[in-house]
Design goal:
The chain has about 270 residues and is an alpha/beta fold. It contains 14 helices and 7 strands. The chain has a 7-stranded parallel sheet with strand order 1-7-6-2-5-3-4, sandwiched between helices.
């Protein structure tokens, strides 16, 4: 695990239905680097509320022309209006958040509030994810597959490393034959996020902020590798977010927060067995 910077940001969180944004969670030098970038990728651990407060502070400081969301489908983004974003209940209804499988909207709502700009959806629909599992990421992406490199297999070393990560992320409970499928879905999601970023940049002129998980944000494997190949002139800044100093991957900066309280995710696999 290689980290370019580990920066601590510990604050107490107020328990509110829709928590307000905190301030000064990100050092000024990191904010300055973000403001100088064309694309700012803001990683997260999905169920850590403080990570979303950090993202909200970053988005507010960057003042992007658009925000790309891993958690929003393209269709959902097209239905949104700024009026809807101002109403959390309406926002949840339009995005069908309760059906999406993401953590509560209350965690993400400060990020939605942080910038009054167009939203671009990059969530892979279940049908496409299933297609990636059954027939590969290239088939699921369609005509753009070659452009995004999905028709080229990963090296044996890279494939093995990614499968090992998927196995660990799923509590060492996945059968070996499922691991290539999980890697294919991850690559598909990286490509869909990248496609949305490039479209947002072309249509709005940038800068563009990206809300996504650390796994998609990481410079050694995720979205930045796609962007550097497809549009090398873009200046990309990547922020990861760790919990108690732990995060996998390479980033330009890492903001550290306490680990969120959560049940042991491996219990679900133990029950299944």
């Amino acid at each position: 695990m290689k980290l370019f910077a580990i920066l601590t940001a510990f604050v107490s969180l107020c328990i509110l239905p829709f928590p307000g944004r905190a301030a000064d969670l990100i050092p000024q030098d990191v904010l300055a680097d973000m403001k100088a970038a064309d694309v700012v990728i803001l990683g997260e651990t999905h169920d850590n509320p403080q990570h979303h407060l950090v993202q909200a502070e970053a988005v507010e400081a960057i003042a992007p022309s658009a925000v790309v969301w891993e958690m929003v489908t393209e269709e959902g983004a097209q239905r949104l209006t700024q009026k809807a974003i101002a109403n959390p209940e309406e926002l949840a209804r339009i995005l069908r958040w309760a059906e999406s499988g993401w953590p509560p909207l209350s965690m993400y709502y400060p990020v939605f509030q942080a910038a009054n700009v167009p939203i671009y959806g990059a969530m892979v629909p279940r049908v496409a994810a299933r297609a990636a599992m059954e027939r590969g990421a290239a088939t699921a992406l369609g005509a753009d597959a070659a452009r995004y490199g999905l028709t080229v297999p990963l090296s044996d070393e890279d494939q093995a490393a990614r499968e090992a990560d998927q196995l660990a992320a799923h509590c060492n409970a996945l059968p070996a034959e499922a691991l290539p499928q999980m890697v294919a879905i991850q690559r598909l999601r990286d490509a869909v996020l990248t496609r949305a970023i490039l479209r947002a940049t072309d249509e709005t002129g940038g800068p563009v902020a990206v809300i996504t998980g650390n796994g998609h944000a990481r410079k050694d494997r995720g979205i930045p590798t796609f962007l550097s190949r497809l549009q090398p002139g873009l200046k990309v800044f990547v922020m990861g977010q760790s919990e108690d100093g732990v995060v996998d991957g390479e980033f330009d900066a890492v903001i550290d927060s306490p680990a969120a309280e959560r049940e042991d995710p491996c219990r679900a696999f133990e029950v299944q067995n």
